[in-house]
TrEMBL record:
It catalyses: Release of an N-terminal amino acid, Xaa-|-Yaa- from a peptide, amide or arylamide. Xaa is preferably Ala, but may be most amino acids including Pro (slow action). When a terminal hydrophobic residue is followed by a prolyl residue, the two may be released as an intact Xaa-Pro dipeptide. Its EC number is 3.4.11.2. It holds the Pfam family Peptidase_M1. Keywords: Aminopeptidase, Hydrolase, Metal-binding, Metalloprotease, Protease, Zinc. PANTHER family: PUROMYCIN-SENSITIVE AMINOPEPTIDASE (PTHR46322). Residues 226-439 form the Peptidase M1 membrane alanine aminopeptidase domain. This is Aminopeptidase N. The gene is pepN. Its cofactor is Zn(2+). It comes from Mesosutterella multiformis. The lineage of its organism: Bacteria, Pseudomonadati, Pseudomonadota, Betaproteobacteria, Burkholderiales. The keyword Repeat does not apply.
Length: 883
């Protein structure tokens, strides 16, 4: 694979058009053959070569208009078939072979549990046949699949089934035709022993659509929830956006072997099984929720990604950021009165994973300017930060304004390959807004820091907010220009009520939440008729992806945690209070002292815990302590041991102080009867299990007894896994038997075994136990783990690498393990290897001894034989060897 840098500004329009493509597959696990017939039309008078991308293919023959093409007319390289002398419309036929069984990269067509599966985004189609493999090459696909009928009774591809029947020698065929124009990255093929759940669904336009969920036979009873999610997603897209489905059928296939979560291939989505299969005893409340979210995401791509696709891969956020925003809105609407839980989850993920990315060596805008391997840019920045940029537009333009802009964008670009400019221009025109400055969010990397100062004038009864912005330099971008930052604000009086907000120059108040647009390095706004000093509620609903600097006192944070009318900011105030206390406790530990919990925090904790006006789900998520990486993020130097000790001691202190209250609450929030993943029941389980987790961390013996009983008797995985996780993270020897029991019960189920692996890889080492790294090495040798299975690697290896004190152990053995795993993965699956490589992105942030050891293994990794380009790119950026 080429290591050349690809630059956005080097884009050139295609010199040829593929009018249509006819593919005939003769499937065989060892060697599959493809007959590829393309109708090619030159688009310019210039004498361009036709470059057809191809990787790890065996070329057998090339024909033009039915006659063999002279070898003088074409050249074959490891990366392309180059044909010269095409000056008029012509038909090119290519006969090539590839090897599915040997494809451990899981890109192109590969084998999974004896079935043929495919993954073509971003550059997998070139591993199937020769084609201009870039997203602006849209064509119509006609596909015939031939295979052994007994081994592969089900043959699927995109679009509509035209014909199927038997062939000689026990083989059969199916012909699929997709009427839509699509790029080759949306092509899909599946063949194997599969069973389906199907329903006929009536679309809003009155047409019937066949919905099918295909799985392996043993999973036939695990797809009811997914089918219901598909129907909810279709209905939501129709009612919220006026977008209707356009094919006769919508198919979804699940596989255990998949590099990603799911893929939106036109009409034939392919999913990782963990986002499809669900029963009460194999899926947690969060799994049920995530399945709905991912099903929605992939379905919503039908319009934002499939019908309107991308000009080039630099525009990736145009489909992914936009569709993440749409799936977030879908999930919030499905949650009803608990909608804020989704917002909190999204912002927690953004702060814990995307903000560090913005501050690290891999920082890039949501539309990158260059890359060596595009798969390295399927990132939190492109997806989740991208979603925040689209959300800001909705905040500024209003829901109806955003919908008008989206409708115009789709109307103009249906069946086309679009750019980010196309989207912004549609939003601007539909709403009569100048969005040129806003477009900086697409081109500038880094997280803006917004500093806010406030001034109350008691004599004039005015309250002034002064906000300034700055963005740190990032690789390749030393100078930053001011963004447009929407800041949603409220003012809370001493009684806990929102003050009606009237800006200077206005004749009357306009609501209790106002969106102020920070456009310059500094702006100020003055509110009138503010008769007493308020507490500002800033960045309500997290109205912009920025770091807020405002000198809240702990009393003010405690006040907002109890009173803010904005539920997100109520959570955020408690979260900030916890973070401040944990940072102080970490400081004390690093200086050799004994930390103590803060009274404001303890008081607020009790008040929220006992506030029955709040939903159980909101109380549970608000009372969770911040993750260790969030505690470490603002620190100049990260000491993982001190951070974990501070977090554990605060958790234990709360568990001891409120033991009777927590125990009573846990008992009262049981969910008897049949399991239901609805938000109310899930919230009750979440609060109950949080209470038990605080109790067992505080050493409560009754909690251990209760959790062992819950583990043995639970009728749902949420309670069973929560009990197991809490006990495994305690000093109790009961964990050994519980892990053995779980392994016996869950063996044979890959999804459950992966959870079992993660529980152990994420645990801390207790006195007298073998360390976690030793346990991880042992688990790698158990029959349930395979380095070739991405889900296994994510569940065990990545979980361990994210277990800060255990991975960053002082003797450096965690880093030696990282290097060993990276060597293995580089020869198996470079995409998974790249994900593991990124766990050392922030090596400079740690204590000097750890940083030095990480620097050494990063340099050693650069000498891995056959180092993939994508991994090399990450290592170079981590070491500061490239911008």
């Amino acid at each position: 694979m080429s290591s050349a840098v690809i630059n956005r500004l080097d884009y050139q329009e295609p010199a040829f058009r593929v009018e249509n493509i006819n593919l005939v597959f003769n499937l065989d696990p060892v060697t599959t053959t493809v007959y590829n017939t393309m109708r090619i039309e030159p688009l310019t008078d210039s004498d361009h070569d036709l470059v057809l991308n191809g990787s790890e293919l065996e070329l057998a023959s090339v024909f033009e208009n039915g006659s063999p093409l002279s070898t003088e007319r074409y050249t074959v390289t490891p990366e392309a078939l180059i044909i010269r002398g095409i000056r008029q419309k012509t038909t090119i036929t290519i006969y090539n072979k590839f090897h599915p069984q040997a494809n451990t990269l899981l890109s192109g067509i590969y084998m999974s549990n004896g079935n043929f599966m495919s993954q073509c985004e971003s550059e997998g189609f070139r591993r199937i046949t020769y084609f201009p493999d870039h997203p602006d090459m849209l064509t119509r696909f006609h596909v015939e699949i031939r295979a052994d009928k007994e081994q592969y009774p089900i043959l699927l591809s995109n679009g509509n089934l035209i014909e199927q029947g038997d062939l000689d020698n026990g083989r059969h065929f199916a012909i699929w035709e997709d009427p839509s124009l699509k790029p080759c990255y949306l092509f899909a093929l599946v063949a194997g022993k599969l069973v389906k759940r199907e329903e006929v669904y009536k679309l809003a336009n009155g047409k019937d659509c066949l919905l099918q969920v295909w799985v392996e036979p043993q999973n036939a009873d695990k797809t009811e929830h997914t089918m219901e999610c598909i129907k909810r997603a279709i209905h939501w897209d129709e009612t919220r956006w006026g977008l209707e489905y356009d094919l006769d059928r919508f198919m979804l296939v699940a596989t255990d072997d998949f590099n990603f979560g799911a893929m939106e291939n036109k009409g034939l989505n392919i999913f990782n099984t963990r986002y499809v299969l669900a029963t009460p005893k194999m899926a947690t409340d969060l799994d049920y929720f995530n399945i709905e979210s991912v099903v929605g995401h992939e379905y919503f791509h039908n319009w934002t990604g499939d019908r309107v696709t991308l000009r080039d891969w630099f525009q990736l956020t145009l489909k992914e950021g936009l569709t993440v925003f749409r799936d977030q809105e879908f999930s919030r609407d499905m949650l009803g009165k608990s909608a804020v839980i989704k917002r909190i989850m999204d912002v927690r993920a953004l702060r814990s994973r995307q903000f560090p990315e913005d501050a690290g060596p891999m920082a890039h805008p949501i539309r990158p300017e260059s890359y060596r391997q595009i798969n390295n840019f399927y990132t939190m920045t492109v997806y989740e930060k991208g979603a925040e940029i689209y959300r800001m537009l909705q905040t500024m333009l209003g829901k109806e304004g955003f919908k008008k802009g989206l409708s115009l964008y789709i109307e103009r670009n249906d069946g086309r390959a679009a750019t980010c400019e196309d989207f912004i221009n549609a939003m601007a025109e539909a709403n009569g807004r100048d969005l040129k400055q806003f477009f900086l969010w697409y081109s500038q990397a880094g997280t803006p820091r917004v500093q806010v100062k406030t001034y109350w004038d008691p004599e004039a009864s005015t309250y002034t907010i002064v906000a300034s912005q700055s963005t740190p330099a990032t690789p390749g971008q030393p100078v930053k220009h001011p963004f447009v930052i929407p800041i949603a604000v409220g003012l809370v009086d001493s009684e806990g009520h929102d003050i009606p907000l009237q800006l200077e120059g206005e004749t009357a108040p306009l609501g209790t939440t106002r969106v102020l647009e920070l456009k310059d390095e500094e702006n100020e706004w003055t509110f009138v008729n503010v008769g007493s000093r308020p507490v500002p509620s800033l960045l309500r609903d997290f109205s912009a992806p920025v770091i807020l600097d405002y000198a809240y006192t702990r009393d003010e944070l405690a006040f907002l945690a109890r009173n803010d009318a904005d539920p997100f900011n109520r959570w955020d105030a408690m979260n900030r209070l916890m973070l401040g206390v944990l940072e102080d406790m970490t400081d004390v530990i690093e200086m050799g002292g004994k930390p103590e919990a803060d009274h404001n925090l303890l008081s607020s904790f009790e008040q929220i815990l006992t506030d029955e006006t709040l939903t159980p789900a909101f109380r549970a998520i608000t009372l969770q302590l911040p993750a260790e990486n969030l505690i470490g993020e603002p620190r100049a130097v990260i000491d993982p041991d001190a951070i974990r000790k501070a977090r554990t001691e605060l958790k234990a202190a709360i568990g001891r102080r409120y033991s009777s209250l927590l125990f009573k609450l846990a008992e009262s929030y049981e969910t008897p009867g049949d399991y239901s993943p609805d938000s109310e029941s899930a919230g009750r389980r979440s609060l109950k299990n949080l209470a038990y987790d605080y109790l067992i961390t505080g050493g409560n013996p009754k909690a251990l007894i209760a959790l062992r009983g819950q583990f043995e008797k639970a009728n749902n995985l949420t309670d069973k896994l929560a009990a197991l996780t809490s006990v495994v993270n305690s000093a109790s020897p009961a964990k050994t038997n519980m892990l053995v029991e779980a392994a016996k019960e869950w063996q044979g189920n890959p999804i459950l075994i992966n959870k079992w692996l993660t529980v152990q890889a994420s645990a801390g080492t207790q006195p007298g136990e073998a360390d976690t790294l030793t346990r991880v090495r042992q688990l790698m040798d158990c029959g349930a783990f395979s380095i070739k299975n991405p889900n296994n690697v994510y569940a065990l290896i990545l979980a361990f690498c994210n277990n800060e004190p255990e991975f960053h152990r002082k003797d450096g053995k965690g880093y030696e393990f990282w290097l060993q795993i990276l060597r293995e993965l580089c020869s198996v699956n470079e995409y998974v290897a790249a994900r593991v490589a990124r766990t050392l992105d922030h090596w400079k942030r740690y204590t000097p001894d750890r940083a030095q050891m990480m620097y050494r293994v990063l340099n050693e990794a650069k000498h891995i034989p056959g180092l993939p380009v994508g991994v090399q790119e990450i290592l170079d950026k981590s070491l500061g060897l490239t911008d």
